[in-house]
């Protein structure tokens, strides 16, 4: 994953960089209409069997990554005689600029990847097809929690299921004589238990802990914990503390509630008061690399995709790590997410675009991504059928089967798993950008989360409404 990118964005790019087959969805039974607003162009007549419908799939990535994805498309092209998919790879830095330019000119590709935080906004602008019917009559429909919905219609499905977890360095725990964090939800640590363990795992240059006399907070050589404070991941702790960022349909802002600000403040206090975490300003999406893998932190929160994008290589280099469920404040919460594949409303071939996407996201067509730990399956059967779960998890790329199954597979299906707000909330890009700026002085202790949010609450509410 690259610094500064949000979850599914980095996830998909990293997945493609691993040169394995990717995501998608398909169906040949249904034409679809845009989610709202503008009508899409009428589908052209179905060509004869000797003339394939040509579909363009857009993605961000290098030329090499595009070539690897084209290899997957070529397999699809050879598997049937009605559709031919061409992959269009665009560098990340200019991807959304190019899409916006194409949208204005009426020249969008048929289908492609779209940033999670842009899906609902593009749908509200009439730029995405309703894909609610894509899986009708099929037993391969993704989990409901992976559907991006606008005005009651499904406008995209996540290509993978990803949840937030707690990773830890077993050797550091063993040396400190601290019990590993629980991998079973029923035994999840409370926040206070989490902080207490983090103190035992935090050492200054003289080997003292934060709760001991003589501890020097300016000379810490090993931190006990790190909680990722990217804005979208912070919603976990607002929810866990009984608050939240939004109401249930994303139309009203709840971040001004005391419970929401208090949850965020507890994350800041890991550095400011508890002295168990390094300073993080919530700007880069490389938390596991600069904590667990760097060898400076005993346990850290982040997404399931890290198993495949970074922890496998670290394990081969000698890292002895484990995975656990998140601690909780008042309610047990983890967020699930996944990068979105969409069908643009300007396409003349929505049915064929969905057929390609449905094929592309089938587990058997992106198995390398799943077996490596970059992606988690999108179908319920992989979580509930023990034979399939073993096929997925019982391999050297994962922590021990029993641990991973309870901490990840079962956790993802539990009541603790909630969809990230960009699955149903508009304008999360502007909201999260503003929130990240507002919280900058909170991490360094110049202000409190409550005061920072209160002073900017009107602006946050305006961002939620799309007002500039």
Describe the structure.
The chain is α+β, with helices and mostly antiparallel strands. The chain has helices spanning 7-17, 63-79, 92-104, 119-124, 170-176, 191-200, 231-240, 258-272, 306-316, 350-361, 367-371, 381-384, 386-393, 401-412, 428-438, 440-443, 449-455, 457-465, and strands spanning 53-60, 83-90, 111-114, 147-150, 153-158, 162-169, 203-204, 220-222, 299-303, 321-324, 334-337, 340-343, 417-419. The strands form 3 sheets. It has a 6-stranded mixed sheet with strand order 2-1-3-12-5-4. Strands 6, 9, 10, 11 and 13 form a 5-stranded mixed sheet that branches. It is globular. The model is unreliable at 1-43 (pLDDT under 50). It holds the Pfam family SBP_bac_8. It comes from Cohnella yongneupensis. Residues 1-22 form the signal peptide. InterPro entries: Bact_solute-bd_prot1 (IPR050490), SBP (IPR006059).
């Amino acid at each position: 994953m690259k610094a500064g990118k949000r979850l599914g964005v980095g996830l998909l790019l990293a997945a493609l960089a691993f040169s394995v087959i990717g995501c998608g969805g398909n169906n040949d039974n249904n034409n679809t209409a845009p989610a709202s607003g503008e009508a899409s162009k009428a589908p052209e007549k179905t060509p004869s069997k000797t003339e394939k419908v040509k579909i363009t799939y857009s993605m961000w990535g290098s030329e090499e990554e595009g070539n690897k994805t084209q290899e997957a498309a070529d397999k699809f092209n050879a598997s049937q005689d009605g559709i031919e998919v061409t992959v269009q790879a665009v560098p990340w830095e200019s991807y959304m600029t190019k899409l916006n330019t194409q949208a204005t000119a009426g020249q969008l590709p048929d289908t492609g990847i779209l940033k999670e935080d842009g899906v609902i906004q593009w749908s509200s602008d009439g730029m995405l097809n309703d894909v609610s019917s894509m899986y009708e009559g099929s037993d391969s429909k993704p989990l409901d929690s992976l559907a991006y919905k606008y005005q009651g219609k499904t406008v995209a499905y996540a290509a993978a299921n990803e949840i937030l977890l707690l990773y830890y360095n077993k050797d550091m725990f063993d040396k400190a004589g601290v019990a590993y964090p629980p991998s079973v939800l029923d035994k999840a640590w409370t926040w206070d238990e989490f902080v207490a363990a983090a103190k035992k795992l935090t050492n200054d240059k003289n080997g003292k802990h934060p709760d001991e006399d003589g501890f020097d907070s300016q000379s810490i050589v090993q931190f006990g914990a790190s909680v990722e404070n990217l804005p979208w991941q912070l919603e976990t702790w607002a929810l866990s503390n009984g608050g939240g960022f939004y109401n249930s349909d994303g139309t009203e802002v709840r971040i001004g509630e005391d419970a929401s600000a208090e949850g965020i403040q507890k994350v800041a206090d890991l550095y400011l008061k508890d002295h168990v975490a390094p300073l993080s300003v919530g700007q880069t999406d490389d938390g596991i690399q600069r904590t667990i893998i760097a060898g400076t932190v005993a346990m850290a929160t982040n997404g399931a995709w890290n198993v495949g994008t970074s922890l496998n290589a670290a394990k081969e280099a000698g890292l002895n790590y484990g995975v656990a469920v998140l601690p909780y404040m008042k309610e047990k919460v983890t967020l699930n997410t996944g990068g979105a594949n969409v069908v643009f409303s300007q396409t003349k071939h929505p049915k064929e675009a969905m057929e390609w996407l449905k094929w592309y996201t089938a587990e058997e067509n992106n198995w390398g991504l799943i077996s490596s730990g970059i992606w988690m399956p999108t179908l319920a059967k992989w979580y509930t059928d023990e034979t399939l779960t073993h096929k997925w998890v019982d391999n050297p790329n994962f922590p021990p089967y029993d641990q991973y199954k309870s901490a990840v597979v079962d956790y993802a299906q539990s009541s603790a798993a909630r969809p990230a707000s960009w699955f149903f909330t508009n304008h999360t890009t502007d909201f999260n950008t503003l929130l990240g700026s507002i919280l900058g002085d909170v991490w360094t202790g110049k202000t409190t989360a409550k005061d920072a949010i209160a002073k900017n609450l009107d602006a946050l509410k305006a961002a939620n409404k799309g007002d500039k």
